[in-house]
Structure formats: C-alpha cells, structure tokens
Amino acid sequence: MLSLLLTLLLLWLFFKLGIGLIKIIGFLLVVGIMFFFFAYLLLPFLAIMLVGSLVWATTR
C-alpha cells in the first residue's frame, strides 16, 4: 500500500514539475539498459579480472 502511495505521489510530483510520461518511460528504459550492461557484461569481466589477479598474485 505504501509503495502504491509513493508511486502516486511521484506521478503527481512529475506532473506538477512538467515532466511528461514519455520522459519518465525514457528514463526507466535508460536505467534498464544500464542495469543490463552492469549485470550481464561488467560483472563477468570484473570476475575474470579478479581471478586473473589472484592467479598472478599466487604464482608471483
């Protein structure tokens, strides 16, 4: 119930500030693309770098 009230409050605030629904949807789309990039591309790359640095540190 609280999240529904917060959503209604945010929609009312965006409407009062003059931020349109298209801008809100665009912002959510950009956030989704950034999450996809971080979760599926950056985290495996960081894991590979971590494993490589651990192997390098143990063999040095």
How would you sum up this structure, described in words?
By secondary structure, the chain is mainly alpha-helical. Helix content is 92%, strand content 0%. Keywords: Membrane, Transmembrane, Transmembrane helix. The chain crosses the membrane at residues 30-57.
In what range is the share of β-strand residues? under 5%
Straight-line N-to-C gap? 57 Å
* Cα-atom radius of gyration: 20 Å
Count of alpha and pi helical runs: 2
Average pLDDT over all residues: 85
Number of strands: 0
Oligomer: single chain
Class by helix and strand content?
mainly alpha
Overall shape: it is elongated
Sheet with most strands: none
SSE string, helix = H, strand = E?
A: HH
- Poorly predicted regions are none
Share of helix, binned: over 70%
